[in-house]
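Inputs:
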Amino acid sequence: MSNFSVGFREEAHIRILDLKGELDAHTVSELEAALQKCREDKNHHIIVNGAHLQYISSAGLGVFMAYIEEMREAGGDIKIAGLQANVFNIFDLLGFPLLFDIVEAEEEAIRKFDADRNEKNES
Amino acid sequence: MPESAHSLSIPSAAQHLGKVRRFVEKHAREARLGEEAIAHIKMAVDEACANIIEHAYDDARQKISVLVRVDSERFTVCIRDRGRSFHPESWSKPNLFRIAESRRGGGLGVQIMRSLMDQVEYSTQGDTNEVRLTKFRCGQPGRNGGKTV
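Outputs:
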């Protein structure tokens, strides 16, 4: 039985994915399906909330890397929020903060998306 | 601390990775390792087994054996398979930006093992491949001191 799940929420133009449980090579297909759904819905502004993500392996990290360029090219982003310390340490160890916008709280990620949007509207 | 050894055998399928993580966590806790060391060992072992499942074997009925050895100096996990061998000399450190540009995930497992463990050693004897992951208990090479042999 899988002990990983992805929940969907909407916040204005942003799709929020709530990850829960252990994300490994077995459960990663659920995250891939969730991002595939975002792509099909043409929703490229994504926040991954990892507050209830207990574990991530390279399989899970690889999925974020597979989608990040596509989301940014479409004018969006994948922002990662709320990671537990042990999970953040793995992202940090591999240098993910250089490639991804990783913030402490979901609200901060929302503010950043809003700021990006306002900047685009002004320019 | 008395020496001890524990073994587990799993089929070559990702659905068994959680079982492997719980197995090594149990014995790392019994060995009274710290929380960070336990988390590192679990993840490194997960990556080693996932690599075997993805790259060494084609058949989920084939077996992966996981052997934990504990003594006063180190906590060692040997992971064995009889599939295609990994050649560490062909490995180079992955570049995150290039992986992202290619829009393909993957290629981070060995880097994770090296970063989290004090030693990562590969060997092949006959038809059996072994990756040996070692975490020293104390006063030994620490995080990022991992060597791949």
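Remarks. The domain at 4-148 of chain B is CATH 3.30.565.10 (Heat Shock Protein 90). Chain B has a mean pLDDT of 90.
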